[in-house]
Write a structure and sequence with these properties.
427 residues, alpha+beta, 10 helices
Length: 427
């Protein structure tokens, strides 16, 4: 376990010896880190190799223009961990993330600057690589506030957001407990897969003794755009995905639909400036889908595969017209299509999608183990629940299986070098 009073240098020594877990920000060491980071600069937003600032009112990785690669990890806190250990871990994670997002090693000594007879403090696979727009985003699961038996392990039960409850069951759920849930979550996104993997690998090492990895997911090929400067990507069914997503440039929509506001939950004002994160691993029966005629695929999705336009006509961003009929009198956009159900039954409810494709080899039947790792950020989990319930009769359900589900409260960002993600909760 990590004592809160330990110095940053002493803690790094413990990591090198394989006994500790983390980096504490603050003091002269924190100032040195800030100087090193400032020397890197923030980088240009359109540069795929640039750096993204870690500190800010909101955590990076939510409205940041979606990168090409993902490494997501969920952790369970160890039974022996106490409140001081959790605080020390979050401080250590924040300090390490602030360095790695700027293209620096996890510590000042890093991969090659330490004693030759001690394990390096950084694993080294990102040496020489640019920051690649790496963002590291932290989330808190229900288990941080009370364990499965209802025990308040860290004195946080009174500050648990009322909305941070296990998601309800949905039609066609086939959830697997080992790859669902978790006490803590880390989302690492980058334009270089090695940079994202390096981040999760080193944060997992830092957590040794306090938290252990529960499950993880790699993703490639974003399935949503979060900036107007990005083109709409395609999912593994071949269709443009996330056409109506909330964009970073739409401050009004973000304030209304994504950011938690002070007063939303009097018990959880610490979450103001944060959001709720839903993750769902959705397996796709690729081979069955690939045998469908193109016209049937279009009818299931409700859009034209070529350009993403709704079947009622127009272009990708044309508002669907559900009154348009075909020559045979049938609705141009079928009643069971994904597009129609998502639009007609959510009454203007919006979420910010940030998902990724995944391919994890082949399953026991020799089929691709592939699909969508869905992630959405919203002001309340009820927004996702409303959207998901609207899809109960979606014709696409025949070709997908929801295997994993999790909900996390994502706190606001660390405001400066002396601050850390989660400080508002533990204040």
């Amino acid at each position: 376990m990590i004592p809160v009073e330990v110095t940053r240098r002493g803690l790094l020594g413990a990591v090198g010896a394989g006994l500790g877990a983390g980096l504490l920000a603050g003091g002269a060491a924190g100032a040195a880190t800030a100087t090193a980071i400032a020397g890197r600069g923030a980088g240009a937003a359109g540069d795929p190799a640039a750096a993204v600032a870690f500190h800010g009112a909101h955590q990076a990785g939510i409205v940041t223009p979606a990168q090409d690669r993902l490494h997501f990890a969920s952790f369970d806190l160890m039974p022996t961990a106490d409140r001081a250990d959790v605080i020390a871990l979050l401080q250590a994670w924040s300090a390490a993330a602030a360095r790695m997002t700027q293209g620096l090693d996890v510590s000042e000594t890093g991969a090659v600057g330490g004693p030759p007879l001690a394990p390096p403090e950084d694993t080294g696979e990102a040496l020489g690589l640019p920051p690649s727009n790496l963002t590291i985003t932290f989330g808190f699961g229900p288990g941080l506030f009370a364990d499965a038996d209802g025990v308040d392990r860290y004195g946080l039960a009174a500050r648990r957001p009322a909305a941070l409850q296990p998601l309800p069951s949905f039609a066609f759920d086939l959830l697997e407990a080992p790859i669902s849930g978790g006490d803590l979550a880390i989302q690492a996104c980058a334009n270089d897969p090695q940079v994202a993997v390096h981040a999760i690998r080193n944060l997992t090492r830092i957590a040794f003794g306090t938290a252990m990895l529960r499950w993880a997911q790699l993703g490639f090929g974003r399935t949503s755009s979060t900036s107007t400067g990005q083109q709409t990507p395609r999912n593994l069914f071949g269709y443009k995905d996330g056409t109506a997503n909330i964009m970073a440039e739409d401050a009004g929509a973000l304030a209304e639909h994504v950011w938690v506001a002070a007063g939303d939950d009097p018990a959880a004002d610490w979450l103001a400036g944060g959001a709720y994160l839903v993750t769902r691993r959705i397996a796709m029966t690729i081979e069955n889908w690939d045998r469908l005629p193109l016209a049937e695929q279009d009818d299931i999705v409700g859009r034209d595969k070529r350009d993403g336009a709704p079947l009622s006509g127009g272009g990708e961003f044309t508002t669907p017209d559900f009154d348009v009929r075909r020559t045979d009198g049938a609705a141009a956009i079928p009643a069971t299509s994904h597009l129609r159900l998502a639009h007609e039954h959510t009454s203007g409810t919006r979420i910010l999608r940030r998902g990724y494709n995944y391919v994890d080899g082949a399953n026991a039947l020799g089929q691709l183990d592939a699909g969508l790792f869905f992630m959405s950020y919203q002001r309340s989990p009820e927004q996702f629940i409303a959207v998901q319930r609207s899809l109960a009769t979606d014709a696409m359900n025949e070709y997908i299986r929801h295997q994993s589900s999790a909900l996390f409260a994502v706190p606001p960002g660390a405001r400066g070098d002396g601050d850390w993600v989660g400080s508002t909760l533990f204040a």
